[in-house]
Design brief:
Blueprint: H1 4-19, H2 24-30, H3 32-55, H4 91-127, H5 129-143, H6 147-157, H7 162-189, H8 192-199, H9 204-241, H10 252-259, H11 268-294, H12 301-316
Length: about 325
């Protein structure tokens, strides 16, 4: 018994040390749903980056003899695996080509709004006073108008283009990050470790980048993932209304709009790009929910609970 007890103790300590802070990748692999969502998003990103290079101009090639081919029409060529549209263009090639446009607009808008809104919010929340008051009033004014309606009005007045869509959607989503970063920064500013750093003479810039940003970043990353879904749906809605992406460019929303008049005869022209929108947004939402747990020290135990239970059973046995 005296020889067996130390062995069990050493194994338990090693197992605990290895399992205390598993990497995000290991946590991701333990969650089947989050792993599938991450794999879907990786495929979407690869299509956006490599699709135009591999397919070339196939998405723009017209063949009126192959109009409205149903999915899995391999007789006309491998590129018609998802059928063709009213001009005989490959649906597969057009969906892949539209991925880069839709994802490019969404990522650009989220990146601009996240960087500007987060930096602005942390600046206002850390310094408080008139900076916070003015910043919150500006955010209230922008949020008083529905973002999608404001984008419709602005794009209707100005020329609809990818750059204008990115700019409009980014401006309308900045208050979301501003309010979130301001609230977290104001709360962290009163923490004891920030007071201790200030009492030791640490510069304000160092305090912000060493203590404020790392604690606010997990929430902002989760918010950005969710906002990616909203911006993607907003761009698709604007393109569907005819004031978003304009031909010869193509996006998923534009494909849905162009195919709606063929729903009875060629349903795949609208349904397939719509399915692409649904799958991408659902995957992003699932990954955002997982990120919220994985990056929050107070909730991370939920992802480790199943593994810890198995480890306990193995140790006892």
């Amino acid at each position: 018994m005296s020889d067996a007890t130390p062995t069990v103790t050493v194994l338990t300590r090693k197992t605990r040390d290895k399992g205390d802070r598993p990497s995000l990748f290991r946590l991701l692999l333990r969650d089947v749903g989050a792993t599938i969502a991450a794999a879907v998003l990786i495929i979407v990103v690869l299509c956006a980056l490599l699709g135009p290079l591999l397919l070339g101009d196939i998405a723009q090639q017209q063949d009126l003899t192959a109009r409205n081919l149903p999915p899995f029409s391999f007789a006309a060529g491998w590129e018609f695996v998802l059928g063709s549209d009213s001009l005989g263009r490959s649906m597969f090639a057009r969906i892949v080509a539209a991925t880069s446009t839709t994802l490019g607009v969404a990522v650009s808008a989220v990146a601009v709004s996240a960087v500007v809104g987060s930096a602005w919010g942390m600046w206002a929340g850390f310094h408080r006073g008139w900076r916070e008051s003015v910043s919150m009033r500006i955010a209230d004014v922008i949020m008083s108008f529905p973002s999608l309606l404001l984008a419709v009005v602005i794009l209707y007045v100005f020329n609809p283009s990818a750059a204008n869509i990115v700019l409009v959607l980014a401006i309308t989503r900045i208050p979301i990050y501003l309010r979130t970063a301001r609230a977290d920064s104001a709360e962290l500013r009163s923490r004891m470790f920030v007071d201790a750093a200030r009492n030791f003479g640490t510069k304000q810039t160092t305090i912000v980048f060493r203590h404020i940003v790392p604690n606010v970043l997990p929430t902002l990353v989760t918010l950005a993932t969710l906002e990616l879904c909203y911006v993607m749906l907003a761009e698709s809605s604007l393109s569907f209304l005819g004031i978003g992406i304009q031909p010869p460019d193509v996006s998923w929303g534009l494909m849905v709009a162009q195919g709606r008049q063929y729903l009875t005869d060629a349903w795949w022209q609208s349904v397939l790009p719509g399915v692409a929108i649904v799958i991408t947004t659902v995957a992003a939402n699932m990954l955002a929910a997982w990120l919220r747990l994985a990056t929050d020290p107070g909730q991370r135990w939920r992802l480790q609970q199943k593994k810890a239970r198995k480890r306990m059973i193995a140790t006892v046995s």
